[in-house]
Every structure is written in structure tokens, then in C-alpha cells.
Write a structure and sequence with these properties.
Strand 6 and strand 7 form a beta hairpin. A five-stranded antiparallel sheet has the order 1-2-5-13-8. The two termini are about 50 Å apart. Helix 3 (about 50-70) runs antiparallel to helix 4, helix 6 runs antiparallel to helix 7 and helix 7 (about 140-170) packs parallel to helix 9 (about 190-205). It has 13 helices and 13 strands. It is an alpha+beta fold.
């Protein structure tokens, strides 16, 4: 309750300390005020013909009202409140100026409390205080003014609610945004506005304020440089693994199990390129496992096989020659890929990592449960860098197993983004090079995470490689296909792409 002002204190002293005769003398020199009731400084015992006992009762009641007002007992308890004592005065002396002034003052304090509650967004308490104020005394015009004041406070708050909700969404304060949205609904805000804000909040929770299919690219915090381009993958659910009847199925591709992504994530649109990996090496002086151990594997056109060759590293292509900047980086191990993503996180201040195995298969399938992401059979057009019947090596070799009637005109890895994107806007997931993912290798999916998280065990000795590559046979290009490799393994078939938390 608001504190008493100096005017109220003067009244209290006048009522409790001055003798009745002196108060009557003051009455002759003062006139009652107009509007809020008689002046508080007027004679508190004005009516003629009152007995000494009545005058004494009035003095006691006014003193009790002053005490109750000081202690905040304006309306309650019913038999010992400021209003109850002031009304007892009016029962004896209906025109008593001090009682009328006291009721007006109590009413103003209740109105002030209502405005205070409204500014605190406690509109229920504000309404109760207004109702209490209206019961104190009849003054329709003052109550209309008070109600207009409360509406003005509400309107000012209402106008600030929508931008406050947007700010809370953008800053990631989702619980606060939810509360503000509930308040907008309670205040009867336009339904279209609520629907738009609700969608914006849901998108922020699921996609960090971004949209599925949107392309993002983070800048380095210091100096020039950009992270690899990423695509926002929508939240959703899919069956991971292969069904029992699928041609080419292997036991470690099962059992099929449902995985649900409640939040979206970002995935590199293409594999990390030689040029992108070069920036990492130049800035960190990092030595890859191929450089440290002195070899990798390359394709030998004479034998038609992959074989070990010394002094082959990430700077080279599948033949062991200088790689082009726009080719996917190969001859990199899981350890190298991890080092790259850690560096990328440090340079951008964002959370970069390798994809989980579930994320990779979900993004590769892009909403389909078919054998391949494009369907169940041979593609009708070039969709990935695969083993095609029409592909020829530099020595005119052909693949021994291939997609019949298909050609993509590449024997080894193609420059990234040489083929159209899948339905999620991602390229080269089902071909070109196989890709490291975060997970440890498990022989089956029994007890695999259902939320798409990486399945990692401390000290695991093998990691997972996913996706088809330039030499994949048709069974190896299936969406469920998976193999294992040691973390320091590297060859001409394996690269990686980045993932990012939103």
C-alpha cells in the first residue's frame, strides 16, 4: 500500500490532538472542497445538535481510521478498517468533512494500487483493487478516469508484448517467449499474430530460428574466412537400416529401428574440399595421419586396384597426382576429420562436428525408404558419382559390377556439387566419396539411440564410414550400406563433410 502524504499526516494530527472546541473554531474559517469530498482540514465534527457522547465517538472513530490507514488496513478486516471507521462516523454525522475526505483518500490509494498492479502485469489484482475502490465511495467520473488509466497501462504493455516475444525468441529465451505468447493469447491478440509467433517460436526451438532447406555459412571470428556451406535439415523421423528382404542387405544393417529428430541440424552441402582443408592446415600446421605415417592408398590403372603408395597425402587425388581445389579432400583419417571440425568450431565460435551415423542416413534418404535415395533401381539421369556401365578409366577399363545403362562420366571422385541435390538440398551423399561419421562401429543396431545421437563407446577401435563412393557397386551404394575402419585409416575413397548444431 502507498505511504501517506504530508496532507494526510496533518489531518491525522488534527483529528487526534486538537480539542473539539478548537476544531469548531476552525470550521468558521474554512469551507469544504468541491469534487473529492469536504476538505480534510475542516472541522471533523461539523453537524449541530450532536451530543457530547456522539462527538466523542466521532473523535475516536476518526483516530481509529487514521491508525488503520497508516497500517494499511483500508478495507479489511471489516470491523477494524479505515473505511469501516469512517463509515461509522458518517452514520452519526452524514456530512462529516473529515470522513468524506478520508474515504476519498482511501479510494485514491486503492486506485494507485490498481495502477501499480497493472504495471506489474497483475491484471487480476488490479481489477480487484478497482472494484474495491468503487465500493469505497460514489464517484463515477473518478472511476472512469481510473479505468481509463488501467486500460492505457495495459495497452502500452500489450504493444510491447509482441516485440518482447520476438526478442526472447531471437535470444533463445524460449520459456520467456512461451509465457509472453500465453499473455498475448489471454489479452485477446489477433489470432494471425499468435499463429505467426507460435510458428516462429517452434522454428526457433527446432531450427534455431532458421528454416529447413536454408543455406547458412559462418564467418570466422577473426580475419577472413568462411566455414563450409551448410543446409538446414528438417526435424523428422525415419526407419534406419535395411529391411530383411532388401537385395544386398547385410546383417549389420539391422534391425530396422525408428529414429526421431526433434530438432533440426545443419549438414555440409557437399564434402569438405581440398581448398577448405588447405586453409585448416596452413593456419594450424596440422600433419595428417597420411603425412605422419608416410603413405595412403591410390588407384592403380594398370592393375585396376587400390594399392599402397608412399608420400601420398590430402593434397593428392585418387591417382596420387595433385588434386584440384574443388575436389573432395581424400587420404584423410577420422582423426584428421575430427581435428578439422574442432578447428572450425574454434574459428567460428559455433558447434561443428562430424555427422552422426543416423543423421547421415536420414539426410541421405531425404524422406524416402527406398533402396537408394532416388528410388529402387538404376537412376534415369546422372544423380551421383557411381559405377556406371558407360564409365571408362584412363586406360579404358570398365567396372566389373555397375548400374546398367548408367554413366556419370567420372571414374574417380568428381568435383563437389557436380550432380543435382537430393530432396533435402544436399549433394554427393550417395556417391563420389565415402564419408566419416562420428559413431563407433557396432555389429548391429540393437540398443542404438532412438534420438539420432552418436553411438559412442569409450575406447572404441573402429569408426563408421557411410555413403556410396566413386567405385561403389550397386549394393554398396544403398542408403543403408555401412562399413567400419580404424580411426587412422585413409585411402582414395574416403572424405568427410561437417555437421553443425543449431
Amino acid at each position: 500500500m502507498l505511504p501517506l502524504g504530508p496532507f494526510a499526516c496533518i489531518l491525522i494530527l488534527a483529528v487526534t490532538l486538537l480539542p473539539a472546541a478548537q476544531l469548531r473554531a476552525q470550521e468558521q474559517a474554512q469551507q469544504p472542497q468541491v469534487g473529492a469530498g469536504p476538505a480534510a482540514a475542516a472541522d471533523p465534527i461539523q453537524a449541530a445538535g450532536l451530543s457530547v457522547e456522539q462527538r466523542h465517538s466521532i473523535e475516536n472513530a476518526l483516530a481509529a481510521a487514521a491508525r488503520a490507514e497508516r497500517e494499511g488496513r483500508l478495507l479489511r478486516p471489516a470491523n477494524d478498517s479505515a473505511v469501516s471507521h469512517l463509515r461509522s462516523v458518517l452514520q452519526i454525522d452524514p456530512g462529516n468533512p473529515a470522513a468524506h475526505a478520508g474515504l476519498a483518500r482511501v479510494q485514491e490509494q486503492l486506485i494507485a494500487q490498481a495502477e501499480h498492479d497493472a504495471r506489474d502485469m497483475d491484471y487480476e489484482s488490479a481489477e480487484r483493487s478497482l472494484q474495491d475502490a468503487a465500493r469505497v465511495r460514489e464517484d463515477p467520473e473518478r472511476m472512469r478516469q481510473a479505468e481509463a488509466s488501467i486500460r492505457g497501462i495495459q495497452q502500452a504493455y500489450f504493444e510491447g508484448l509482441e516485440p518482447a516475444a520476438i526478442q526472447a525468441i531471437e535470444s533463445g529465451e524460449f520459456d520467456r517467449a512461451e509465457r509472453l505468447l500465453i499473455e498475448l493469447i489471454a489479452l485477446g491478440v489477433d489470432s494471425d499474430t499468435v499463429v505467426q509467433l507460435r510458428q516462429r517460436l517452434d522454428d526457433a526451438r527446432v531450427y534455431g530460428g532458421l528454416k529447413p532447406g536454408q543455406t547458412i555459412r559462418d564467418r570466422f571470428r577473426e580475419g577472413e574466412g568462411l566455414a563450409p556451406e551448410c543446409i538446414i535439415v528438417p526435424a523428422g523421423s525415419f526407419l534406419m537400416g535395411s529391411p530383411q528382404h532388401e537385395d544386398g542387405r547385410q546383417e549389420h544393417e539391422g534391425p530396422e529401428h525408428r529414429v526421431t529428430f526433434r530438432r533440426g541440424f545443419a549438414l555440409g552441402r557437399v564434402e569438405v574440399t581440398v581448398a577448405e582443408f588447405r586453409v585448416f592446415v596452413e593456419q594450424t600446421r596440422y600433419r595428417t595421419d597420411a603425412e605422419r605415417l608416410g603413405y595412403s592408398t591410390v588407384f592403380d590403372h594398370q592393375s585396376g586396384r587400390l594399392g599402397r603408395r608412399d608420400r601420398v597425402n590430402w593434397r593428392m587425388n585418387y591417382e596420387g597426382l595433385d588434386a584440384a581445389d574443388n575436389e573432395p579432400v581424400i587420404h584423410v583419417s577420422w582423426n584428421d576429420a575430427q581435428a578439422f571440425t574442432r578447428w572450425l568450431g574454434e574459428r567460428t565460435g559455433k558447434v561443428y562436428r562430424l555427422p552422426t551415423e543416423a543423421e547421415f542416413e536420414y539426410a541421405l534418404r531425404a524422406g524416402r525408404q527406398s533402396r537408394y535415395w532416388w528410388g529402387d533401381g538404376v537412376p534415369r539421369r546422372p544423380v551421383e558419382n557411381l559405377t556406371g556401365e558407360g564409365d571408362l578409366s584412363a586406360t579404358n577399363r570398365q567396372w566389373s559390377t555397375f548400374f546398367r545403362g548408367y554413366t556419370d562420366r567420372y571414374w574417380g571422385p568428381a568435383p563437389v556439387a557436380s550432380f543435382a541435390a537430393n530432396p533435402f538440398g544436399l549433394q554427393d551423399l550417395g556417391g563420389n566419396v565415402g564419408e566419416w561419421v562420428m559413431d563407433c562401429w557396432h555389429d548391429t543396431y540393437l540398443r542404438a539411440p532412438a534420438d539420432g545421437a552418436a553411438w559412442v563407446n569409450p575406447g572404441c577401435r573402429h569408426r563408421v564410414v557411410r555413403g556410396g563412393y566413386w567405385a561403389s557397386s550397386p549394393p554398396q551404394a544403398r542408403s543403408a550400406y555401412r562399413i567400419s575402419a580404424q580411426p587412422d585409416h585413409r585411402d582414395a575413397r574416403i572424405g568427410f563433410r561437417v555437421a553443425k548444431d543449431l
